[in-house]
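Researcher: We're teaching a course module on how sequence relates to structure. For the next exercise, students receive a sequence and then see the predicted structure as tokens, so they can try to spot secondary structure elements on their own. Here is the exercise chain.
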Amino acid sequence: MARKAKARKYSKGASKKVGRAMKKRKAGTLKSGRSGRKVKSRKQAIAIGLSEARREGKKVPPKKGGKKSSSKKSAKKSKKSTKKRKSKKS
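Model: And here is the predicted structure for the students to work with:
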């Protein structure tokens, strides 16, 4: 019985990016994007490497969480603006 070759989920370029992020984390030079704090978590280092690979167009599956719909956010904003504020009368 011949085994069928399975299609790769991640490209070689993506795994290189993750490896580079892991090495930077180990050295203590990997920093998160917005806050600029040092990354200590292994999982976070992998996520940073994968996001860099995605940005460059490497073969990486999309995020599991995906994008949240903006309709919920806009509904919350409109709800807040319609609430009446109680005025203090003295």
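Model: If you want an answer key for the exercise: Residues 31-63 form one domain. The chain has a mean pLDDT of 81.
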